[in-house]
Write a structure and sequence with these properties.
The complex is a heterodimer of chains A (81) and B (419).
Chain A: H1 6-18, H2 39-53, H3 59-62, H4 68-80
Helix pairs in contact in A: 1-2, 1-4
Chain B: E1 11-19, H1 26-34, E2 41-42, E3 55-56, H2 71-75, H3 79-95, E4 107-112, H4 118-131, H5 140-144, H6 148-157, E5 163-164, H7 172-185, E6 191-198, H8 203-211, E7 241-249, H9 250-255, E8 262-271, H10 284-297, E9 306-308, H11 315-329, E10 337-339, H12 342-345, H13 352-366, E11 368-369, E12 392-393, E13 398-405, E14 409-416
Parallel strand pairs in B: 4-5, 4-6, 9-10, 9-13
Antiparallel strand pairs in B: 1-7, 1-8, 2-3, 6-7, 8-14, 11-12, 13-14
The chains are: A mainly alpha (81), B alpha/beta (419).
Chain lengths: 81, 419
Amino acid sequence: MPEKSIEEKVKDIIVEQLGVNAEQVTPNARFIEDLGADSLDTVELVMAFEEEFGAEIPDEQAEKLLTVGDVINYVKEKQGE
Amino acid sequence: MGQSNQSYRRVVITGMGVITALGQDLETFWQNILAGKSGVSRITIFDASQFDCQIAAQVAEFNGTPFFKVPKDARRCDRYTLFAMAATKKAVQDSGIAFESENMNRVGVLIGSGIGGLRTLEEQYSNLLQKGPSRLSPFMIPMMISNMASGMVSMEFGAQGPNMGVVSACSTSTHSVGESFHIIRRNEADVMIAGGSEAAICSLGIGGFAAMKALSTRNDEPEKASRPFDRDRDGFVMAEGAGILIVEELEHAKKRGARIYCELVGYGNTADAHHMTAPSPQGEGAARCMRMALECAGLNPSDIDYINAHGTSTPQGDICETQAIKTVFGDHARKLMVSSTKSMTGHLLGAAGSVEMAICAKVIQNDKVPPTINLDHPDPQCDLDYVPHKAREVRVGAIVNNSFGFGGHNATLIARKLV
């Protein structure tokens, strides 16, 4: 089985953590306004991304990850380095 | 009878929900209790193979998610809160109350837990040790604190009346129901969602109680392990689950045409002030507690037909409770029936009192008294009528429900047929 893309992995985590439907998780979807996350959810999401992609996401960076696309781009950028 | 109640608002039980090893709906549970079934088995929900005690009354098949309006809320709840929510939904349904037409400022929640989210603590501490502090979940504290069941239930229903959690070990949910009784009597609410929940069958819970030598180690005969008042008892058997009651002001219940199980008439609440875990000699604190409840109810000892004992199957506890009953009831102690349903359910700790209060309400409603099973050779110091082995059909007008907790907490409820 081919390895899942970054997009798929990010999407899976969001669906699991926030209990939303996969169709809602579009690149433009905002975690708080569109996906119903609260402040505790966002902390837990960042931890799950860190765990999945094996990288620390500093707090000042985490604050800027407002949409699904922000996370995908950030992970791609970090992995490209 | 009941003269001292005249100036108070009267309080009744109108709905009940239980999650236990012997059933996740009230009727199945009640039938199993009458049939004298044991809910105790070998532990499968965690690997207990290294522990002295390898048995418990576990709720093996349970999914909490369907009991939440928003599935995500279930993910952020410890197992004890999931049990509480499930039992609450069942109790609300059983009561037939329609919260959409209630003044929710007059609906409160008082659900306690003896220990709280022990499994969450265990998981997260393991994360801390293995992965470091940055891997502690932001939900750890809200999940494990013992008041969160009351909080989550209030949010689920929009119940904005009195709200808190009681923590008094194994007397927790008897206190929860008793305090709810007073809240309604004092006119601070019309309806209280009251009870307790516990989910401590995990390595810290079993290991901790086993270290105290408090648990039965009859691992080869799980169904015979909980044997209150029997000479061969060797400790209690831990159970998990929840018991939630809808406690309601009488006129409020009548107005909506509610089915009324029984009237709550008395509540006693005392401390041994003696020892962390051992009961006071001759059950002195327990006796004062039962007397306080009788006085509150305005009943005489001879008015009581049935006592649902704390009866945990520990060597000392069962003797002290027997002595306390003799102290309070005198000659009548020989006439009334006493049973320990923990012989079947195991010990639900902070949920024990409210699950047992649900049993008592069914006793009053059906005039059937559940047995104490496994009472093959009564301890010579335990010489009351414990209704051994088989349930009885007999009129029950009034009951006493006892709970005693580590810390020397005693709680007694008295209920009777509505007259």
